[in-house]
Give the backbone structure.
Amino acid sequence: MRLLPILCGLSLLGLPLQAHDVLLISGGPALRSFEKYKKASHDKYWGNFIDSALTRAEELKKDLKAGDKIVWLVFRPSYTRRTAEDQTDYLKIIEERGAKLGLSPTYFDNKTQLFTLLRRDGSKEKPKICRLEYFGHSNKKCWMFDYSNRVDGGGLEPLVVHVDDLEKISGSSFTSDAECVSYGCHSGEEFSQRWRMIVGRPMVGAVGKTDYSDGGMPKLSNGKDGSWVY
Amino acid sequence: MGLLILFFVWIAIPAVCLAPPLPTRFSPVVEETNSESSMALPSQEGQEAREDEEIRKPVDEKVVRATLAAAHTPAKHGETSGESWIAQRTMVEDYCGWGWIKKDKDSWRQARWVALEGTRGTCPLPHTFLPRPEDDKNYQYRFFGTFAPYRAYEPQADVWVDVFILKGFMSLGPAKEEIRRPPPAQASSGVNRFAERGANVR
């Protein structure tokens, strides 16, 4: 009861009671040596999931609540390998592009590290997540940070998040009104529903493919009757 | 005198007709010498070359092999000692993996479908030596390496496939026949069941 007047005072002053994190996750690109001659060749451009995440960060910044901050998680190994293949330092470019928006990438190297980064208790050091958005390869059952990069046409088990892994993400890490979006292909066909059931927060996902080819934010592929669903 | 002439003719004609032929410019000259290093004449070389040509006459199969792009694959690369497997490159459109792998004594029915991972600095994937990844389709290798403790996710069929970490290989040439067995697929979802993947083809 004694805290009530203080809380009321703080809210009247417009100060945030608790800051939250907005999480943007960028998956990695494929290697051209695997994809070059395929009919549906992926990731001719290395930075599909970087540019889209940064475009979204720019949009979100405008409506960011006081105290909230954007945390940009980037799957590092795929960019390191693409760097070796193209002889271009992509990690440096990623950091430079992020710096223009005042963002610094937080790298993760496998799904275990990602789960650790997603573990929040609402403290100042680990604020809860009020929004999570994913940019990367996926199918209806899996987020594939690593795709056609270590092995041809697939991703390694420690580097993908399958629906069977969702139990490792706690719903208590999210605020009660947290919004989640997956901009990967087919997420709305199963992943979103399983996320809602297990993590406890709704997730918007695509039915059909998503297309990053125009740069910036992905859109639903034309002519496939795609839609965004919860 | 007449008798003398007849006698001379009787002696001379057989001597001329039955005499050994005079050595020509191209006929071999056999000299009995004590030297072991006798120079071969050009005529001898030509003769040997002609014999070689007959022996090394290109067989159709050899011509086909030599013109395969896979002929560019090194005969041996990386660490080629220790336990080995026989592997056959098999390509399945839009399916994760490299091909089939088995032990020497096993039949191809017992082979395992694998995704292949190279070892940086030791052994890249064999197709990286070729102009295109499919150039070694149905080519056989002897693989050296280990199975990884993790698996690879195959997104078309939603299955996990074994990963083989390649340390070295030896080329064995084209396989006698293609392996037509389909790679692993879930009962509910065969290959290309949901083949529509990311359109981020930029």
Q: What stands out?
A: The CA atoms of residues 47 and 53 of chain B lie 10 Å apart.
